[in-house]
Amino acid sequence: MTKKHQKQKKNLIKYALLFVLLIAAGVISFFVAKSFFDKKDTNKPDDGGKSQVVDGGKGGIEKVTPDQGQVTTEEGLEDKNIVQYDGDDPNASESLTGVITYSSINDGVLSIRVNIDQYLTEGTCNIYLTQNESTLYSDSVAIIDAASTSTCEGFDISLTEEMTGSIQILIDIFSGEKVGQIAGGIDL
Fold it and tell me: Model pTM greater than 0.70?
């Protein structure tokens, strides 16, 4: 055999070995992945996937079922409010709070939109535009409920000649026994 044939034979053996190793690695990876996904989860919910298994922090596993608002523990069923946000519940607050989420001027109309942190089904928002402690404009709109918060119906104010410069915005919110105030400003 010539050197050229010997070299070709060695290269052929190298490529064949590399091919066999790649096939073996693929087969091993397949079986490892299959055994990983085939393992039975002992904490798996039996409610069709509607609940979520969490570590309750008490040394036991809890099953949270969102549509029931309850937590099932190893000891049995207990009523427990599931907090879905950080901090205190704004609906339990003594006063109403919120923020001006949008203010814009378009074609001589000042549009103001407000988000109220609490869920309210009724009430009133009173707006006051002031400058140098003098009221330039006031109006009242209804409160509209949203999914978990509320909003004022919306303020669309036609601007007048005296409405120039720095204007303070004050919105009083009234719903039942609760009141609150939202403040902001705009340069006209």
Answer: no
Within 13 A of 99's CA, how many CA atoms are on the CB side?
4
Type of residue found at 144: I
Residue ending a domain, choose from 21, 52, 82: 82
Helix (H) or strand (E) holding 63: strand 61-65
User: Does residue 59 share a domain with residue 148?
Assistant: no
Q: Is 114 exposed, middle or buried (0-12, 13-18, 19+ CB in 10 A)?
A: buried
DSSP string, 107-169: TTEEEEEEEESS--SS-EEEEEEEETTEEEEEEEEEEEE-SSSEEE--EEEE--TT--SEEEE
Which tokens is 52 given?
């979520």
Q: What is the CATH number of the domain that holds 167?
A: 2.60.40.1930
Q: Which helix (H) or strand (E) holds 10?
A: helix 3-38
Token output for 58: 């008490």
User: pLDDT digits over 71-126, tens only?
Assistant: 444 444 444 454 455 677 888 888 999 999 999 999 999 999 999 999 999 999 99
* pLDDT tens, residue by residue, 125-175: 999 999 998 999 999 999 999 888 999 999 999 998 888 899 999 999 999
Same domain, 69 and 100: no
Strand partners, 158: 109
